[in-house]
Specification:
alpha/beta, five-stranded parallel beta sheet, 490 residues, 20 helices, homodimer
């Protein structure tokens, strides 16, 4: 649906003074309250060059407390940024709880520029727009209000402003050096922008069109929209309420964990031989990976005591330490807690050529957070689609994903817990929490089964590893990784 | 002083099993305790290629709980890294409290490689070594123990290992592709390394030489040094105790704040004209800066109510939002608190071409933290030299630094506080804390005077701005920045 430009009436300087004097204290008061609220605000600022985006950035910083506003201007991607999925740099810059993020030249600008330059096929263009909608819906669902401002001026006004500029060289600094571009590309930009505005004008994050042909009018319009957004952000309840649960993707019939055959074993002799062979093979492949534009992500989930640590150690045992990185995800830090739950996983994405290993992962959302009630039902139900989308983005930027569920029986777990308590230097591995989790075996089992069913996708499938026998499990993990790498590297 | 290689006796496999079985539980127990301790450990791993550094990385991850160890392998700097001071990327990776950072190819490798390649003049080489010593002393003083392991093997052993490798192609993956380099550069590397080892073999962070010619012997030696270091880390008291206060650099005679002339005023008419002229000038210069390899850092400190926010707004008023970034430093987050106090300032350094504005800054250490007792006397006394060194590194990577102290009288502050309480939309600016700080005016004044005296350096001087008149102060700030930029850009 195309967003509409509401006709507004010009204001006199006196009216402006009066109305802005009424707005500003309310804006500051609302902004001060936001600081301790459970929500954040993301502002996108769009419009043709010359529409006064810079002036609006300054206005917002002037009318609000600038310490609570992070203005982020996105320019060409640096090489670190180019080596990650396109959304990576935006994720890094998302505002934390209580703050306002002001994005200037953001995911919208990228795709307009690429499309106008002819670098983006229609299908990719559409997919990128849909991805933006998905991301914004996700942010809104977790209490980040998204205010999208589009500053509108007509072609005549653009021309008029450029002429004024030509005549007043002392104003040149207001424009980027490439100051004649806006007119040359006006028609193409307009078409692309209009399509973008229609397709991303969603219910949860609509575009707000601002008539920017006159400054006073524009400032008041921006001020009012800001106030409306801030007040809406303050009214938000905790993210668990409000949002409707998303439809759950089901990719497979449910897998019963109880049906997993846990009997496979590997004797030490065979284990030793297979370990050596597969480690060498993996080391070879890791150098090939380093020379390629691809990377590898291995996700390890499993019961407490299932042997994640041991499997990870065998996996990296033959790898050059420069080529891999193990990140253990325990409780989030306060910075992480103040962001969307996926933020900390975006944060540690590796550059191409490298191997990232997640010891526990973003699946915590649908496992421990679900079982312990840290995430409400609407939240974890929504998470399956969000996680699939996250992994899809990784796959599109050439990440090979291997996901392991290390499965043991409750009896085997008990045996291992007891053994850990007996061995002095393994005692640190077992805590009261492990025993508590064990009591909730059934709840965890249901969560795992749902996870396997709903996130087992073609580009990022799960491997359920029978792990009652450690030898067997370790080789199984190594073999799977070797196989997946061979598929893409050879 | 040259570090010594202690002669050790080879161990039999049986002795090895027995001794490692004794070591490992103690290592794990110490590592488990470190998690909740008030200290961290940084391990540097050095030695010629082929000495078995990769194997030692794996050993450490195997003998300790790998979740508490961050192994960071530094390779060529990315362009984001090249655009910052050389130490920037290492600062990003320093271990937080309770953790072990294992640096593989770190600040030591950089300078050996550059020196062997002839890219580093003797004087620069020496300065870089001294800087390493300074940084390590600083880390040790704040409870990061630094364990520097140098794996030693003789030239014959290197040759022997290479020959063994030639004959066993299945082992090739253990070596980087450039596997013949070690011998070619052996002599030069050895000379450079020996000088490096001598000069950086300090009392607070000595090199520990490990005979790496035989694996069992090497493993046990590494294990024992690790245990010794972990146990020392656990014995550390809070950083305030222990360390001796550093000698305080005095660059200037003490400046009495009371002697600052606070009468200068600027009427609104003149102010308007000067504001416009200087803002245009600055906007011009900011584009020139963007084209240069330089950047600008403006530090704002001053009394509560002195008008930092207003001065910052006028300073950036004419700037393109893509060119600057304002960071407000309030209380640190928990991730920041778990690092050295300078970590969060390193974290937000801008790339060249940009303007960074710090609203409050690293000077908090010698101002509010001193006055409120958050930093002990030894800590804030040490901080003057640490801050000067930090700024010196910025200056060396072409950052222009302008530091402002906005000065008002206690009477003017009282007037402003009262006025803020009267104006509804300014009320958010004044808190109980502001009134409490006011009661400690004298203590703050002494801290400011010490700061001005001890950190007013040639490359990074302070500007004390009389700010009883806001017009005057804002123009003074703008003029100073314009003048400093003109010096380097024109």
């Amino acid at each position: 649906m195309k967003p509409q430009l509401k006709p507004v009436r010009p204001v006199t300087p006196e009216e402006y003074d009066e109305q802005s004097a009424g707005l500003r204290p309310r804006l500051l008061a609302a902004h001060a309250k936001l600081r301790t609220a459970n929500s954040s605000v993301l502002i996108h600022l769009g419009g043709v060059d010359g529409a006064g985006k810079g002036a609006v950035v300054r206005l917002i910083n002037d009318w609000l407390d600038p310490r609570g506003v992070s203005t982020v201007a996105f320019d060409l991607a640096t090489d670190d940024e180019q080596r990650r999925p396109p959304m990576w740099r935006y994720w890094q810059a998302l505002p934390s709880r209580g703050r306002i993020g002001l994005f200037f030249g953001s995911w919208y600008r990228d795709i307009v520029v690429e499309r106008v330059n002819g670098d983006l096929k229609r299908k990719v263009f559409e997919r990128r727009m849909d991805r933006i909608n998905t991301l914004e819906r996700m942010l809104v669902a977790e209490n980040t209000l998204v205010l999208k401002l589009w500053l509108h001026i007509g072609k005549d006004e653009v021309r008029h402003r450029l002429e004024h500029l030509e005549e007043n060289p002392e104003l040149h600094w207001r424009w980027l050096p490439k100051k004649l571009e806006p007119l040359e590309f006006y028609r193409e930009s307009k078409e692309v922008s209009e399509e973008l505005l229609s397709r991303t004008n969603t219910r949860h994050a609509p575009w707000r069109m601002v008539d920017a042909s006159e400054n006073r009018m524009r400032n008041l319009a921006v001020g009012r929209l800001l106030l409306e957004t801030l007040e809406a952000a303050l009214r938000l309840k905790s993210p668990s309420q409000g949002a409707k649960p998303a439809p759950i993707p089901k990719t497979l019939p449910k897998r019963r964990l109880a049906a997993v055959d846990l009997t496979p074993k590997l004797d030490d002799d065979w284990y030793g031989r297979k370990l050596e062979r597969n480690q060498h093979r993996l080391a070879d492949l890791s150098w090939k990976l380093a020379d390629s534009r691809r990377s590898l992500l291995c996700v390890f989930e499993g019961w407490d005591g299932a042997g994640k640590g041991g499997a990870i150690r065998r996996l990296v045992g033959s790898l050059d330490p420069r080529l891999f990185n193990v990140t253990s995800y325990a409780a989030p830090t306060d910075e992480e807690r103040a962001h969307h739950y996926l933020w900390r996983f975006w944060r540690h994405l590796q550059a191409p050529g490298r191997i990232a290993i997640f010891d526990r992962s973003h699946y915590g959302r649908v496992l421990v957070e679900r079982v312990e009630g840290f995430a409400a039902e609407t939240q974890w139900k929504r998470a399956y689609a969000e996680i699939n989308d996250f992994e899809q983005q990784l796959v599109e930027s050439k990440v090979v994903i291997c996901k392991f569920w290390l499965h043991i029986s409750p009896e085997e777990q008990l045996r291992r817990f007891k053994k850990r308590e007996e061995v002095p230097f393994k005692r640190y591995k077992i805590t009261a929490e492990d025993w508590r989790n064990r009591d909730k075996w059934n709840a965890h089992e249901a969560a795992v089964e749902d996870m396997l069913q709903r996130t087992h996708t073609v580009p990022a499938p799960w491997t359920v590893v029978p792990a009652n026998d450690k030898n067997f499990a370790r080789i199984e993990v190594l073999k799977t990784v070797v196989r997946e790498l061979e598929k893409v590297l050879e």
